[in-house]
Amino acid sequence: MSLKDRIHRKEITLGSWITLGHPAIGEIMAGIGFDWLTIDLEHSAITLGECQQLIQVIELRGCVPLVRVGENDPTVIKRVMDAGAHGVIVPMVNSRADAEQAVKSVKYPPAGFRGVGYGRAQGYGLHFEAYRDWNARDTLVVVQIEHIRAVEQMAEILTVPGVDAFIVGPYDLSASLGIPGEFSRPEFLRAMEQIRTTMGDFPGVAPGFHAVQPSPDDAVKKLEEGYRFLAYSLDTLILGGTLQRDLRTIGRGKWKPLPPVKGGTR
Predict the structure, then answer these.
(1) Which domain holds residue 12?
(2) For residue 92, which of 121, 64, 68, 58 has the smallest C-alpha distance?
(3) Which of 67, 166, 201, 206 could covalently link to 7 via disulfide, CB atoms 3.0 to 4.6 Å apart?
(4) Which residues form the catalytic set?
(5) Within-domain flag for 82
(6) In 3D, which of 146, 153, 148, 144 has the Cα closest to residue 190?
(7) Domain at 132, CATH number
(8) Total domain count for the chain?
(9) Burial tier of 41 (Cβ tally within 10 Å: 0-12, 13-18, 19+)
(10) Quick check: pTM over 0.90?
């Protein structure tokens, strides 16, 4: 069963975020048990070539590779789809027109306007017909709700045919309110409540949230709130957070840890 089928059956799916370009990262994380992994081309130094390598290793490990593109640009989306991505997560979708462009950038005519090329996805030209049919049936379009304008236009965004899921980006959403990272502020809580209210009117679109901090309790709370397309943290925070926790535990013995890094340098 494809990830798209599972989403439309209202199953919970769990993924994570990759910001480090080495294929071993994708291989390790894909082997853990995530349903999907997102390669981040918006906030990372990952190149398109590294992205394709990550797609390959994630797919080989039986996990679904998605790509968060840097912008809602048809050429950018076309290139990552030709590299073999099973779908895209599109940032800053703030209107119905934005959502329509994202869908049409993924799909071939008549559903979209994606140009035809022979890349890895099409078997380098040997399997175009099979890919064309798979593209129409199984590719995923996930829009990010990460600006207060998107919250205000959310009902219009989610009515666009071809939008399979949305995912809340809490940091950018709070930043759009002028309070970056202040998740307990009333204005942020009101926006989140508006999202939860609106998503209940669109059961066919999987509600998602990026639980950025590596906290299982926070992730479970989001599942309890009804989010079914859940991103759990990201590679760098999982690595850094685990080591930070473990060094603190070890430091309770005879070893004294160094002071924490300040401002990104020691």
Answers:
(1) 3-250
(2) 68
(3) 206
(4) 43
(5) yes
(6) 148
(7) 3.20.20.60
(8) 1
(9) buried
(10) yes
